[in-house]
Amino acid sequence: MAKTLIDIKQSLDLNLGKRLTLKANGGRRKTVERCGVLAETYPSVFVIELDQQENSFERVSYSYADVLTETVEITFDDSALLAGQ
């Protein structure tokens, strides 16, 4: 992904509403993987609406610094975009 916080925010702004897979470091060698849609971006954080059948809560938010430090990895699902068109 991008190299600065501003670049990360701008690239996420361009992908609002797109499906993604998110891998987050859960601590103590745990990795959490979630699927959802990039819902909103704010000056310091971004919000992902999660798939309800897989998760017990609706939304999660992460900071752009989490992406910069690779605590969070985001992969946009281009195949779902092609299937929806």
Descriptive notes:
The protein is 25% helix and 44% strand. It has helices spanning 5-13, 64-68, 78-84, and strands at 19-27, 30-41, 45-50, 59-63, 72-76. Strands 4-3-2-1-5 form a five-stranded antiparallel beta sheet. A hairpin with an 8-residue loop joins strand 3 (45-50) and strand 4 (59-63).
Q: What keyword list fits this structure?
A:
single chain; 44% strand; 85 residues; five-stranded antiparallel β-sheet; 3 helices; SH3 type barrels; Veg family protein; Protein_Veg
Tell me what the CATH architecture is.
Answer: Roll
Instruction: Estimate what percentage of residues fall within beta strands.
Output: 35-45%
Poorly predicted runs are: 80-85
> Which series of helices and strands comes N to C?
HEEEEHEH
Strand order in the largest sheet: 4-3-2-1-5
State the secondary-structure class: alpha+beta
* Spatial extent as radius of gyration: 13 Å
What separation lies between the terminal Cα atoms? 25 Å
CATH topology: SH3 type barrels
Amount of helix = 10-25%
- Please tell me the total number of domains: 1
Total helices: the number is 3
Given the C-alpha coordinates, what overall shape results? globular
**Major β-sheet annotation:** 5 strands, antiparallel
CATH class: Mainly Beta
Query: For the residues shown, what is the average pLDDT?
Result: 86
Q: Please provide the count of β strands.
A: 5
